[in-house]
Give the backbone structure.
Amino acid sequence: MTTTPTEADVTCVGDIAFADARQLLAGHGLLLHHVAAGEPIPGSYWGEPEAGIIGSNVYVRDDTPVHSMLHEACHLIVLPPERRALVHTDATDSVAEEDATCYLQIVLAGQLPDVGSARLMADMDAWGYTYRLGSTQAWFEQDAEDAKAWLLERGLPVA
């Protein structure tokens, strides 16, 4: 039997302190909601166990990958409040916003106890994120200047 990255290799919300994740997202004006096991995740673009977003709300279950929680949250963080309020499930179709979201999720993972940026980048690779340089870490360190500049222009954290 083969296992998916969620089952074998990827840090999930149930592996970390939910209060830490809730506090991190609250610092960016977001509310983190815990969905019971087996229940549908509201606003999940990719379907369970992926995180869902509606307005300033992020929805997760214990089996939701942390990288998914952070990615969807960062989609909301990079949006101005008037656009954030309109989000339901799908946050953007902008390549610049997507790149900024990926960069920011790595930065925020560094502020999340029991995760860290290195672990999140490994999880992103295990899950199937792809970058020109072959890994999330290589992209982050060598090819993400545009994403970093995008975040800096908007006063968002880059370290």
Observations:
- Residues 1-7 have pLDDT under 50 and may be disordered.
